[in-house]
């Protein structure tokens, strides 16, 4: 697809301000959309929106199709009559600048379940009909998801009581339900009927609130860029319900897992641990799982960024049980055949390709054969460890960009530009100043200006850079747990006229409005 020259902001909804400990789909989300409009922006890039577990990473969701109940706005449920205002009166003293996921989950999930019970009992006929329609339309994934989460809830509770860490469906559940034997499926559906319908009601809330927010954004000229990780979490309904589509043994354990090999930044590579696809089985299935996944994503967003796109050409296969990613091999994937069939089913795909890392001519050919824009990260343009180094040949430098690309100052996995610059060597800082022909007194906004001036069709700036924040506002440090990953939130006063006017000046000057 051809994209119109434009720009936008990268921000996950959990980063919105608000009193309930975590950003949600309420008033602050609509205020952010209004801010985008005032700032002349037309793109909002979000991270994955699915339910998260250990580590709180949106890239390790329990489902590729479901929404995260923690994003549900409670005030809206009060307005609908599913909660009373008094239910929100005893509000914990949540931190302002970060999400304390443990405390939020402990406080918010019981309220959401109370709202769901009230809805299922007291909602009028119109809302109940909407809910039934939702359940019917989404049954292909919703039925399995609700059962998976209800069963998981019981076994997770048992694991906590037994002080067992890391209990997953394939290493802790009873064998009959782990392997989805028909009699066990029937028994658990009956036993967990109440919990299952509550899980479905929470998904109804998620989809209703997100759908309303997306319409509000689209009506004001804002397109939403979603994010689809190439791989799925091992402890997910995706794997549990589709074992034959993954390289697993008879017990459901992965035989090989995903990662990336050693490179400039890691002597041992990155061991992600995701189960790998059984591409032979997916081919025999006509790639229907991928068609369904992309179609479902496009019902929620306007454009999809595919994370680790190079894995569709070839992926790094690591034997299960390895402690690092050193031992492995590149295995070819059916990228072109896959996208041809998906496009035949769904039409031309509005996809952005995350083509970072070890990129070969074959990966570039796959990307270009479908005209998918790739990514250019400005921080990489001035990193001596990157391919090309500190010289004019570095392909991340703006003068080497091409139109069919998306330029970022940095991404959710990078340090903020301010924090990153402060950690550069003297040589790197000197190269940056010489390239910009400017001092470093306003370095972050010089980078934003570089992105806006690039010939790349899209320019995306993380909200942390728009606010000129340091490393303490970093969203994620890859391959780490803790470090306040995924927790950053901004304050309401951050969306002010000074910031919006500065962005508006740049998009006007460089033709991105």
SSE topology sketch:
Layout: E1 6-10, H1 27-38, E2 43-45, H2 74-80, H3 101-122, H4 125-137, H5 139-161, H6 175-178, H7 182-191, H8 193-219, E3 223-229, H9 237-240, E4 256-260, E5 270-275, H10 279-284, H11 288-298, E6 303-307, E7 314-319, E8 329-332, H12 335-346, E9 351-353, H13 361-369, E10 374-377, H14 378-381, E11 405-408, H15 417-422, H16 426-436, H17 443-453, E12 458-462, H18 463-466, H19 497-509
Parallel strand pairs: 1-2, 1-12, 2-3, 3-6, 6-9, 10-11, 11-12
Antiparallel strand pairs: 4-5, 4-7, 7-8
Helix pairs in contact: 3-8, 4-5, 5-8, 11-12
Question: Biggest sheet: strands, sense, closure?
Answer: 8 strands, parallel
User: Rough shape?
Assistant: globular
Proportion of β residues?
A: 5-15%
Cα(first) to Cα(last) distance is: 19 Å
Spans where pLDDT lies below 50 across 5 or more residues: none
Note the total helix count: 19
Structural class: alpha/beta
Mean pLDDT: 96
Report the radius of gyration as a whole number of Å.
23 Å
Widest beta sheet: strand line-up: 9-6-3-2-1-12-11-10
Q: Percent of residues in helical segments? A: 40-55%
């Amino acid at each position: 697809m051809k994209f119109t020259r434009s720009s936008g902001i990268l921000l996950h909804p959990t980063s919105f301000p608000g009193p309930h400990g975590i950003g949600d789909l309420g008033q602050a989300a609509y205020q952010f959309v209004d801010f985008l409009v005032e700032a002349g922006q037309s793109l909002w890039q979000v991270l994955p929106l699915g339910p998260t577990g250990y580590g709180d990473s949106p890239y390790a969701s329990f489902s590729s199709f479901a929404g995260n109940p923690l994003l549900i706005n409670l005030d809206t449920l009060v307005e609908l009559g599913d909660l009373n205002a008094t239910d929100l009166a005893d509000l914990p003293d949540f931190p302002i600048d970060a999400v304390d996921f443990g405390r939020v989950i402990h406080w918010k999930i019981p309220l959401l379940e109370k709202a769901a019970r009230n809805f299922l009992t007291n909602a009028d006929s119109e809302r109940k009909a909407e809910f039934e329609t939702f359940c019917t339309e989404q049954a292909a994934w919703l039925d399995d998801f609700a059962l998976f989460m209800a069963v998981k809830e019981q076994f997770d509770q048992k694991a906590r009581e037994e002080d067992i860490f890391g209990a997953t469906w394939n290493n802790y559940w009873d064998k009959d339900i782990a392997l989805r034997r028909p009699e066990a499926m029937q028994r658990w559906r009956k036993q967990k009927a109440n919990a299952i319908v509550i899980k479905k009601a929470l998904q109804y809330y998620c989809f209703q609130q997100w759908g309303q927010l997306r319409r509000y954004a689209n009506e004001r000229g804002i397109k939403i860029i979603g994010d689809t990780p190439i791989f799925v979490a091992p402890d997910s309904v995706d794997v549990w319900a589709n074992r034959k589509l993954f390289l697993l043994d008879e017990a459901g354990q992965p035989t090989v897992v995903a990662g990336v090999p050693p490179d400039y930044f890691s002597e041992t590579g990155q061991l992600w641990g995701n189960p790998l696809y059984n591409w032979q089985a997916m081919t025999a299935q006509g790639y229907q799982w991928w068609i369904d996944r992309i179609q479902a994503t496009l019902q929620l967003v306007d454009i999809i960024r595919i994370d680790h796109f190079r894995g569709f050409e070839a992926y790094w296969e690591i034997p299960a049980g390895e402690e690092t990613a050193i031992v492995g091999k590149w295995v070819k994937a059916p990228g072109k055949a896959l996208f041809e069939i998906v496009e035949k089913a769904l039409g031309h795909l509005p996809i952005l390709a995350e083509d970072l890392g070890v990129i070969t001519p074959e990966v570039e050919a796959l990307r270009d054969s479908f005209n998918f824009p790739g990514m250019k990260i400005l921080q990489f343009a001035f990193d001596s460890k990157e391919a090309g180094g500190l010289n004019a040949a570095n392909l991340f430098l703006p003068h080497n960009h091409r139109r069919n690309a998306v330029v970022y100052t940095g991404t959710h996995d990078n340090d903020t530009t301010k924090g990153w610059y402060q950690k550069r060597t003297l040589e790197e800082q000197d190269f940056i100043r010489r390239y910009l022909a400017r001092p470093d007194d306003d370095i972050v906004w010089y980078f934003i200006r570089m992105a806006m001036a690039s010939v790349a069709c899209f320019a995306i700036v993380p909200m942390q850079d728009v606010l000129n924040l340091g490393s303490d506002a970093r969203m994620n440090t890859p391959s780490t747990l803790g470090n306040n990953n995924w927790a950053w939130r901004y304050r309401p006063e951050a969306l002010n006229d000074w910031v919006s006017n500065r962005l508006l000046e740049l998009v006007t000057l460089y033709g991105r409005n």
